[in-house]
């Protein structure tokens, strides 16, 4: 009996959107690969010199690399890294963005001025080069990468959340909660934030795609995830030397990045359309 | 018990209006200027005026949703304007609001049950065990069934939503309810139902209403006394019946003339208001109503008339209060 706005309208619209469903399918597939990785029973680092550079075939579905490691198995373990980086980085960015955006939007005045000027300053840095510079000083571990991608990606969320809060705080149900004597924290968490989450959700979904791309690019440049830990970015670069003879080393990680990013983008845009109140069905 | 429940004294509120271009001077919009009135326990005071006259702002200032620039709001003897929001919280139980827009006044992400349970839990009025029964009783009181409680606001009509809003306000058994245009957004047939519900609740709970509306006809049925606002000031306040029968301010008279009445003779002239409400950023000097007033003389352009008691309990802010009625044509 309990049917919310989400389950009633948004979910139905989303289900009817084929592109969004295709995106969701891709995202789901990648999650499945990541969780299923140990089921192969093969160590992604297991070197087998006798089976090096084998093309895709029955024994190794996606072939092997120059050390005889199975590309499919390494791709699946790489998916774990990529998805982990995507989720954690976006989680950090979204959490920071919500806190700053909520403070700026709800309290306004000096809070708003200080926080939004700080956002403007942060936006002035070209974030990829900022990340490069910071990584140069730190150890290039995947935790550092997640934290840095998160710390440089929250400004968009903050702006979104602030804009939502500015309009929602004047809505009568928020005034009613204040008249009832609800504390600021309760008004923010229970009444405003749940109604402000839709654009944040869209932004976060698209952000996962961005974070995965950033991680791949960093690993490609050799300052991201370090071998022998497999990540899509460092597999891509590792296959570069043998691209002419063993195309499968670079093509499959590249495809994995492409499909995952595509999946998140399609899903994110589908959610955006489904949440758009101006679209009537 | 002789003390009024609510005493509003000299309430002022201005809003800053930023200039359109950078560096343009910030101007002040005078929303409420010197509003004072009393409200007795169990009484209903209607607060009437055109859009933008400051009546909703007055309501929100009393509820401290807005901070007044100056003035006092004495509620049960406490000056609400001097309390911090934290000190105010326990008192809020006794002062509730009903809002205008039934589509905006309920949280779309909360089930009706949770909307009605929140005030009870916030003020610790019932234990967890009695909560469900209490919420069902509240819903029943405003004409909703238990089957409605699991639904979300978007599944209800405007009238039903307004009932939910009323139930939320009376959940904490307040002594004063500020109803900010509670029926303006509803169909005429639903308006009567909701007004009857408000009146029934008043009789059961013995509460007072500050009933804000832009329509004198709506206020007539529920108010004991009526205050008429124009450009941030109360221009007339008095017992409802007398004010309707015998207004002492030309603005009240004009509003009454604007109320549509079944009239067999459409040619009979009824002087209606001409012109627009002047901008509250730059109000006219003297009496703010003088540019639209059919009685206006020289003094009105210069001197602001004070709100003075002309008859017992009936005050008017007009230099020519005695002459009002000359132009009145509504069959008395």
Attribute tags:
heterodimer; A: 281 residues; mainly alpha; MetI-like fold; 71% helix; elongated; B: 332 residues; alpha/beta; 8-stranded mixed β-sheet; 4-stranded antiparallel β-sheet; 10 helices; 12 strands; globular
Secondary-structure map:
The complex is a heterodimer of chains A (281) and B (332).
Chain A: H1 5-16, H2 18-36, H3 71-107, H4 109-124, H5 127-137, H6 142-151, H7 155-168, H8 172-179, H9 184-220, H10 232-238, H11 248-275
Helix pairs in contact in A: 1-11, 2-3, 2-11, 3-4, 3-6, 3-7, 3-9, 3-11, 7-9, 8-9, 9-10, 9-11, 10-11
Chain B: E1 6-17, E2 27-39, E3 44-48, H1 55-62, E4 70-75, E5 78-79, H2 85-88, E6 95-98, H3 112-122, H4 128-141, H5 158-170, E7 176-180, H6 188-205, E8 208-213, H7 216-220, E9 225-230, E10 233-239, H8 240-245, H9 250-258, H10 298-302, E11 308-311, E12 314-316
Helix pairs in contact in B: 3-4, 3-5, 5-6
Please outline what is shown here.
Chain A is mainly alpha-helical.
Walk me through what this model shows.
The complex is a heterodimer of chains A (281) and B (332). By secondary structure, chain A is mainly α. Helices cover 71% and strands 0% of the residues of chain A. Chain A has a single domain (5-36, 68-275), classed as Orthogonal Bundle (MetI-like fold). Chain A contains eleven helices and no strands. Chain A is elongated. Chain A starts with a helix and ends in a 6-residue tail after the last helix. By secondary structure, chain B is α/β, with parallel strands linked by helices. An eight-stranded mixed beta sheet of chain B has the order 6-7-8-3-9-10-12-11. In chain B, strands 2-1-4-5 form a four-stranded antiparallel beta sheet. In chain B, a hairpin with a 2-residue loop joins strand 11 and strand 12 (314-316). Chain A binds chain B through residues 1-5, 8, 171-173, 175-183, 186, 191, 194-195, and chain B through 60, 63, 65, 88-90, 92-93, 95-97, 99-101, 104-109, 111, 118-119, 122-123, 150-152, 154-155, 165, 168-169, 172.
